Each structure stands twice: as structure tokens, then as C-alpha cells.
Amino acid sequence: MIGKIYGTGSYIPSKVVTNHDLAKVVETNDEWIRERTGIGTRHIAERESTVSMATESAKRAIEMAGIQPEEIDLILVSTISPNTILPCVACEVQKEVGAVHATCFDLNAACTGFLYAYNTAQAYITAEIYKTVLIIGSEALSSIVDWKDRNTCILFGDGAGAVILKAEEKGIFCPYTRSDGGKGQALTCLPGGTIQMNGQLIFRFAVKQVPLCIQELLQEQNISLKEIDYFILHQANKRIVESVAKRLGVTIEKFPMNLQKYGNTSSASIPILLDELNRQGQLKRGMKIVLAGFGAGLSWGASLIEW
């Protein structure tokens, strides 16, 4: 059995913080931020929380999938910014959407989190343990950002994205994931603290490892780069996405981006982009898509899916 995506959903907070807004707080400007990151705006949670954003994205995915919440067997939430340590976000979402039969737990793999959660869900489905899975990436990163640090505050935003996976007999699921804890100090956040990052090291890591993992994944499956319709990368930085495309020798048009609107939303970035593309009618059944994530841990990976 293989899980196929039947529904997507996302939620973006209404408050917008522009580069010009940040220039009033730290020494920066719109041109500097856009040139180095591609980001123009980001959305910040005020009344929203990690749970409320996760819940809204889940409701929209459930509605699109045309299922009842009671049909959901498993809820996985990827987040590094939960409202509380206990209970977990997944259990709170279960309560809000009425998925009374679901097993629920959270997963922390930072910006690679949604990809890891997707792979975990597929493993359960392949083992025929669960048939219908709700996967969510939800982040309120504004709560763990130092708004006086111009190296990080320009990068991050809040939001949530979700997908519904349903078991089918035929389909494609090909995962590739790696971690390197020895380089974990490049991106950290201590309890009660804020995100600290070695931006240059993270950039070099991403532009090297992401193309390699995509190439290895496709080589293992004997599938060429030309056969892939879209490469959905974690939305961290425009220059990273462009560098990955260049190293793979693939046209940038196959690498959709929305980071210019939302910034880096960590584990929410891939499902938010998937939902936007899906609702715009750009994803068609049978398309081959590569999902790829990278981030703290250090962790990275890719998955080949058939839409």
C-alpha cells in the first residue's frame, strides 16, 4: 500500500511584516534583504498559535479530501515552536477537528520536519498499520526569533500547511533522508532562547547536499531529472533554490517558490507551497514530484511522489 495525497490545506496569519518594517527595527533595507534572500514579506501570528494554525490548515485539507475526521487513523505534526510542551500539538488538533480515532504525536526535525513526517506516515501506510493520515507542518517562529538580530529576523515567518494521505494499492513512494549531528551547532535554539544560525555554513551545506540527495534518490529509482514535473524545496532562501536548480541542470521554472511572500516557515513551507500549487490547479494526477528539505540537525532529504 502507498499513501496518495487527497487533500491539502494551509493557513497564513493576517499580519504582514515587510522588509521596510524591519528596517525600522534593525540596520537593514528592502534591497539588501531581497538580494540575499528573495524575501519581501513575512506573516506573523498575533492572535493565532501553532495549534490554531495547524487546526485551520487541517480542516481545509480534510474538506478537500472529502473525508470525515473520524476516518483519520493518525495525526502527525511537525513543529519546533509548539504552544506548550504538553499536550502535544497533534493531540490538540485531534480535539479541535474531532478525529477521535486517531493516534497523535509531534515530530521535530526543524525545516526538514514535514518531509520526515511524510516519510513516517508512508512507512505506517506501507506496513498497513494506518490507512488515512493527516500530516501537518505548523510554526510560530516569531516566538523564538530575536527581533534585534538582523541575520535571523529577516528570514522567518509563521504559518501552517497540511495534507491528507489515503492508502492505495498503487503509487510511488521513494524516500532518501540523512542527518549529521556533528554539525548541529550551525543552527540552534536553546530552551527559552532564540534561533542562532551560522548562515554561511547552512548555505554551503544546503547547496551541496540537496542536489546530491536528489540525484541519488532518482538514480536509485532509475528515473531521470527530465521526468520530474516539479521540485518542491523547503522555502528558505531564493539563492539556495536557484543554486540547487543550477547544479542539477534543471530550469528554474520547475522549482516553484513562494518564500518572497512568507519567508522561511520551517516545517510548514513545503505543505504551504503544495497547497498553493494544488489550489491553483498546477498539480495534476500522475505528475512526478520531488519534495526536498534541509535544516537543523543537520538533517536533509528528499522523496519522490506521484501526485
From TrEMBL:
EC numbers, comma separated: 2.3.1.180
Active site as annotated: C111, H234, N264
Keywords attached to this entry: Acyltransferase, Cytoplasm, Fatty acid biosynthesis, Fatty acid metabolism, Lipid biosynthesis, Lipid metabolism, Multifunctional enzyme, Transferase
Enzyme class label: transferase
Gene3D superfamilies: 3.40.47.10
Pathway(s) of this molecule: Lipid metabolism; fatty acid biosynthesis
Reactions this protein catalyses: (2S)-2-methylbutanoyl-CoA + malonyl-[ACP] + H(+) = (4S)-4-methyl-3-oxohexanoyl-[ACP] + CO2 + CoA; malonyl-[ACP] + acetyl-CoA + H(+) = 3-oxobutanoyl-[ACP] + CO2 + CoA; 3-methylbutanoyl-CoA + malonyl-[ACP] + H(+) = 5-methyl-3-oxohexanoyl-[ACP] + CO2 + CoA; 2-methylpropanoyl-CoA + malonyl-[ACP] + H(+) = 4-methyl-3-oxopentanoyl-[ACP] + CO2 + CoA
Protein's cellular compartments: Cytoplasm
Domain Beta-ketoacyl-[acyl-carrier-protein] synthase III N-terminal, chain residue ranges per copy: 105-180
Matches recorded under NCBIfam families: fabH, PRK09352.1
Description of its domains: The last Arg residue of the ACP-binding site is essential for the weak association between ACP/AcpP and FabH.
The protein's name: Beta-ketoacyl-[acyl-carrier-protein] synthase III
Organism: Dorea phocaeensis
Taxonomic classification: Bacteria, Bacillati, Bacillota, Clostridia, Lachnospirales
Gene name, Swiss-Prot/TrEMBL: fabH
